[in-house]
Amino acid sequence: MKKIALIYWPKKGNVEKTAHKISDLLGPGSTDVFTISEVEADNLAVYDFLILGGSTIGADNWEDVHTTKWYSFFDVLKKLDLSGKTAAIFGLGNQILYPEHFVDGMAIIRDELVAAGAKITGTWPIEGYEHSDSKSVEGDHFIGLALDDDQQPELSDERISKWVAMLKAEFGL
């Protein structure tokens, strides 16, 4: 059986709820769910697939990434070889309050995963969002699943379901 590690931060809130929804949809026993404080990054080699998720709480939260819990995780990630691993990313943000930085955090996570050798999958269409800019957009897609539980909570469950179905196909599950 293929193993998936789902790693998220921050704890207690929409990101955590989303992580558990994704895990539930992937199926029982297929996914180990961790906060970035709980995961032993050195043990990521045992997983076939990685899913990472976080929130973008204003640009200043990610501009000085060295002061966040992500920094410690990224510091360990820099020492790993994730070649041959496939990773997907989800991000939560508020496209109305932060229209110029909507889900920017996904790009930072992606850059760290790619630097460690991981292949990124799970792009998501930008249609239906009202942001003006995002570092997580390439062409007409986000680099991962973008959610706005503040402005579009009624769309999140459907978006999560479709994204997980897509990941299952891409992961060969």
Can you lay out the helices and strands and say which pair or pack?
Elements: E1 4-9, H1 14-26, E2 31-35, E3 49-55, H2 59-63, H3 69-77, E4 86-92, H4 105-115, E5 119-121, E6 124-125, E7 137-138, E8 141-142, E9 145-147, H5 153-171
Parallel strand pairs: 1-2, 1-3, 3-4, 4-5, 4-9
Antiparallel strand pairs: 6-8, 7-8
Helix pairs in contact: 1-5
Written description of the protein model:
By secondary structure, the chain is α/β, with parallel strands linked by helices. The chain has a single domain (4-171), classed as Flavodoxin domain (Rossmann fold). The chain contains five helices and nine strands. It has helices at residues 14-26, 59-63, 69-77, 105-115, 153-171; strands at residues 4-9, 31-35, 49-55, 86-92, 119-121, 124-125, 137-138, 141-142, 145-147. The strands form two sheets. Strands 1, 2, 3, 4, 5 and 9 form a six-stranded parallel sheet that branches. The protein has a three-stranded antiparallel sheet with strand order 6-8-7, with no helix packed on it. Helix 1 links the parallel strand 1 (4-9) and strand 2 (31-35). Mean pLDDT is 88; it is low at 58-62.
* Class per helix and strand makeup: alpha/beta
What level of helicity do the residues show? 25-40%
The CATH class name reads Alpha Beta
Order of helices and strands: EHEEHHEHEEEEEH
